[in-house]
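Budget justification, computational time. The allocation requested in the original proposal was used primarily to generate structure tokens for proteins on the priority list. As evidence of use, we reproduce two of the resulting records. The first is shown immediately below.
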Amino acid sequence: MKAAIIVFFIFFIGLIIFMLIKKQELHSNMKKNQAKVRRQSTPQQGLAVSSLNKEQRNIIESNRESIQSGLKSIFSHTQFDFLNETLPIKRSDISQELYIATKNCIGDMREFSSVYKISNMLDDPQVDLSQIAKIVSTDPILSNKILRSANSAYFGSGKSVDSINHALAILGFVNIKSILFHNVLSKKFSAEASLNPELKVIWDHSIKAALCAVYLSDAFEGLHRGKLYTLGLMHDVGKFILPRLVQGRTFDPKVIIPYGEKLSILREDELYGVNHAVISRAVLEDSGISEQLLNVIEIHHYPLFTHKSFHLSKNEDQKYLTALYLANQIAKLFVKQDEKYLFAVQPLPPSYQGFINRLKLDNIFNDERIIADISKSGSFIEFSN
């Protein structure tokens, strides 16, 4: 009897130890899976750096110095005189006739709405990639773009990627989003892009702005990376529509270059009765994008014209506007030398700078991996059907 009790006791202790070990293994596996999802949710920094040769590293180092110099310029204590400023036109200022014409230029946005829903799914850290793969597989053109991108030199996997699941895992969520949105927009704007090469540069800038917005989120408190990505990618979509909107009149992009200057925004209003930011908001209405993001897109140039308290009342909205404006300016620091004439890098008014952790921001854009990732972003996507 005594021996039986001892055996039972040993068995009981062993069972407890076994259960504790299994529990620890389960906890460890959960942490690994969560870490894997987090890695997939952020840009693929390691892949962007692994294939860099000495010459490319020298370019990255040169870019880093240029970017740090650019950041100092953006955060300079330039004096802003906001008294009696002429503000850019807003959505409420345009006629119903012009609004309808703007909506007609883009047509049905149902496909965009579907892509935006997938984009929101990708923001979920628990998303199942196989579910996304099933959706992508229903579109042969999109599937082909996904596979071509995953097999491009940009990712340099060294092995042939021939399944959508594998391609999605390699691309990372940010790049997947870029391809999804690009697939929709290229169908609508490929003609404009082929006639106006500058629009291809704008698309590349938009991808870089989206990526900058994702990275700089760590320098802000409480902002959602998915929202920042959408703001960065879609804030300039109106520039693709402006040539269509002025049919019957001569559209000369040179009169609104460099993009981003105060005069270029006001010049759009003067010539066409509307500016690209308002057009962007108008075409994205009814697409699933929230009113909060629509408002920020509509006035994303307003920091050049007004103190922050003049337009957005909510602190969170002011932070999103600041983040978009800043991502827009930083992305301009990554343009190629022969494209710099297209963009004007603007300073950030001091009244907005308090939202930003400057030390974190400087560290983010001093990171070789991040500089490489942004520099090469968009290079695997072509503006074609």
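The second record produced under the same allocation is shown here.
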Amino acid sequence: MSGNWLNEQFSLAGKTALVTGASKGIGAEIAVAMAMAGADLVIVGRNAKSLEQTTSKISSLSKDVAQIYCDLSDSSSLQRVTSELEGKRLDILVNNAGTIFRSPAIDMPEDEWNKVLDINLNSVFAITKQVGKTMIEAGEGRIINIASLLSFQGGVNVAAYTTSKHALAGLTKALANEWGSKGVNVNAIAPGYIETDNTAPLRQDTKRSESISSRIPLGRWGQPDDIAGVAVFLASKAAKYINGEILTVDGGWMAR
């Protein structure tokens, strides 16, 4: 090994990464972390003001960044994005965009069910299919899906979200089987309880929040940047023999 071996293993220099849901939270932290590791970025989000903040952080690191504004629940908007990505050479894809709707299953409106599945699953497949074509042609690429603890568990009052995240874990494994031999590694990260907008209702419920914290061996909720380093690792040379993995980053929740 050369003296620069460690840096080379984790460097993303010369790579271009696409991160969806990069306006804030986990997606923004991943995008900035990848820029810090040397990658140029294409970031997708629907909140122009927040996306601009992520762009500013990446630009301050002297890395190129392009913005794509898109509501992934809207089929015409999604089609515009996939058309824009056609033939574009990307080395890394992070499917982070997601939404949740909390309701007893029996009361869930059909349009909310469809919206959750459209953003969390259908848009992932559409974007991954498009980006995957160029990765396969190039003979290399890294795809990282952001799954959830609810890729393994049932949850309460989140039937659509749980369904989408179970399906995302299955899609990760299916594509890992199909594309691994073509040089494309497909993995997922399953975050535990992270302080994001999606978990705000849980954190505002003092009793529920304390109950969750008490079950986490590390004794705290995660932060978005707890996920960012793992994403950089999976995108790097250091993870070249990891494929089809659903990596939990949960403070020990699943070990309890």
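A brief technical remark on that second record: The beta strands are 16-20, 40-45, 65-69, 92-95, 141-146, 184-191, 246-249.
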